[in-house]
Amino acid sequence: MSLLAADGITKRFAGITALQGVSIALDEGERVGLIGPNGAGKTTLFNCLLGLLRPDAGSVSFDGRDITRLPVYRRARLGIGRTFQRVELFSGSSVRDHLLFAHRIRLGTGALWKDLLGLGLPKPAEIERCDALLESLGLGGMGDEPIEALSLGQSRLVEVARALMTQPRAVLLDEPSSGLDRAETTALADTMARIQAEQGFGLLLVEHDVELVATFTERTYVLDFGRLITHGPTSEVMRDPEVRAAYLGDFAAGPS
Amino acid sequence: MTTSVLAAGVLEETIRAFFQGLPIGAGFALVAMSFVLTYKTSGVFNLAFGAQAFISAAAYFELHTRRDWPIWSAVLVAVLLVAPVLGLLLERLIFRHVHAVSAVAKLVISLGLMVALPELFKLAVDYNREQPFGAVGIIPDGTAVYRLFGRYPVTRDEIAAFAIMVAAALALAALFRYSRLGLRIRAVVQSPRMTELNGVNADWVSSGSWMLSSLFAGLAGVLLVPTTSSLGTVLEPRGYFPIVIAALAAAALGRLVSLPAAMFGGLLLGVVTTELRTHLPRDNVILNELRGSALPYVMLFAIIVFWPAIRRQIAGSDPLLGVAPPPPALAAANRSRGMTVYTRIMALAFFTAVGIWTFGYANNFWISRITHSVIFSIIFLSIVVFTGLGGQIALCQVTFAAIGAFTAMQFAQRWDVSVIVGMLAGAAIAAAVGAALSVPVMRLGGIWLAIATLAFALFFHDVLVKYGWVGGSLFHGRGVPRPQLFGVDFSSHKNFLVLCVAVLVVVGVLVILVRESSTGMALRALRGSETAAESIGVVSWRSRVIVFSVSAAIAAIGGGLLAMEEKQVSYEANYDPQIGLFWLVVVVVLGARTVEGGIQAGVAFVIFPVLVLERWLHLDGAWRFVLFGFAAISFARHPEGLLEHGKRRSQAAMQRLFTRRPPVAAAAGAGGAAGPGDEP
Ligand SMILES: Nc1ncnc2c1ncn2[C@@H]1O[C@H](COP(=O)(O)OP(=O)(O)OP(=O)(O)O)[C@@H](O)[C@H]1O
Ligand SMILES: [Mg+2]
User: Fold this and answer.
1) pTM, 2 dp
2) Does ipTM surpass 0.90 in this model?
């Protein structure tokens, strides 16, 4: 039984079928890639997994439980963390705040009466935890920066950190490397690998950076026009001629 | 035999009500179409149409009944000239420049206009508000009665209202079908972003639709005067609230996007209103109240909460949303630490000086003004909590304040319990009412939330206050004593001021605690990005219900204190929903994000009209509505408030001067739909 599984997901938008009977599965401790050309439906699949979109058909399960009809926050509290392709940060808050919010909400200990008695203020230990994670992502010392002052690459790292602070069991990353340079990408991959080794979550990675997918993931799914065209161990998938035609060749010729 | 006679009587009443409902519905339909036109072409939910309807109507009566202009020329000027020009001005000078801001920010601007425009008009034409205007329609001999089918009485005015609405709707349809402007408006109405991307010149489209919709609103304003009783005998902007609310309900039936639905919705609601008035049993007190002006509020509330299309609209999003340009970066996104220290020192100095003056030298008038400032600061902290912290607009804070005041009064009058206990009980009741009210509407958020809370405030005002168990009986009066607490007598002005200051300090500290703790964290996350907040597990509606209740309780505490200060509940002077709109405007203009901003708003609300306007500038106090109302436009660019913005700017300038290094805070990045200062 997989940790997170989508079964026969179909999603239509006015006129377009963005996903057509797509099934994928992710296990704990596993690293899985999800690739496909622009508009293939990768982000749509993420949104269906996390509940931002309701699929027209198919089901989503987490840890053996059907979560197709659960709202986003319930899924998040079950342990699905994600980042966004189009960065979604809390404008007006500092970098550390992002991590603090995630941590607090994960704990679920917030109650109004505690706040009113002054028991809900951030504790030094919490701040230390946040700063430690920032440090390990290479954002040490940036805790007090307003989020608007960050570069795109740094913003993506904050999103990753925020997702990790919820102590997820499944992490969904939507193109984390876009906006990062090669060194930063490698550093991110190393950090992710290390934190994953510690925490043991399953990791689903959407990426256009083929090299990252090839080196980082164990299995890969390939989407094209909303259909799953193949999947298997990453090294085999990368050799598949159909994949090369649909995606890699297209990509090598220059991303649209 | 008798039953069939009875049935025939009921049928006749029903048909009669139907014919009486159509002209009223025609007015609703016109305003509802105005809402749809501007909402779809410029994303503005223009609550100020009520104000615009009032202006056209008032201009008409000013010209026709007081200055004896002939009808045709008065209509020409008041409706065909004033209304479209006003619409054009609003679009060109204001709404065109705030295209990219959030729907809530646009709503705030329209609230400001709703407050400012009628007052500006009254000041400009020296409008006499006391004088009855005589409800004359725009056709001669309008009260003449015809009998449709020889049976059902309708007046010439009613026929005219209906006929003009039909003509206007047909003209609109023809315009859409045959003219270039109409085709473009229709394209934009169907898919605003799409047409923009395709390069349709959106300029004239939005000007054109603003002129059209203002014309419709003005027309409705004039036509409805003789046909609806809610306008009363003295023409005031307040009279248009029920009409605007009914029109909103009609527009909501078509999810604010369908013109035909808005039109038929308006007619339908007009007919439903008169039918219910005719058929609701007269012996039930509550149902009897519904017969009055309360019906539109109940309908709007029900439609917002239960109409499935609205829920679906909230779920489904615009496919091209990502194409919209990001909102402008804030000039100074965050407040620095140095600035916080500086503000605190300044505040300390200021309050010490004011304190010494108040307790040493001020006369009773000024002590009372200062006490009022303190109390309004407390009330405004409820807006800081919900709007500044929660990022949402609620328009019924005034109702919660009234609940606090009335509860304190009832406790003292009925059970001879300390007013302090009464005030706290009022806070608890307000919190409970807030929670009950918010559970159905909080999921909606944004403009729907604002409208639903306005409907509630108006319902309270028109219906609930009249009940003895809410508003007290005429027999007892609305007197409220000053409190005694732990053997200390707070009846003297100075002692009571000390008590109010103590309450303000406590409430201020609690607000800061909430903001910096778990509840506040969830709210700040939500305000930053609802999607991302939910993706880390924030339960948006629950957080909002909690903060709405807290805010209701704070408003009730302030309301209770206000009643004690004035030694009575001056309901009409202090707790009218229209004043509530002004409260919101003042707070968002000066700074809704900080406790300090709330206090500044409290001081400005009380002191500014007496000191600056009346004593220094010798102006009518009504100018405050105009000034603050128009200042609300600034909310689009400076959601942190004008004072806060000014302070950050000057601080940044100082810093540059001394360090020759740009401050980090000023280097705002791309994001920033809402950039707050999160220091006290
Ligand atoms: N909310 C929406 N409404 C309508 N169509 C949508 C919506 N979201 C996505 N689509 C469409 O669904 C298809 C799949 O989009 P999706 O964003 O999932 O692709 P993607 O694989 O993530 O692409 P990219 O690599 O560019 O991120 C596209 O054709 C897109 O235009
Ligand atoms: Mg994508």
Assistant:
1) 0.85
2) no
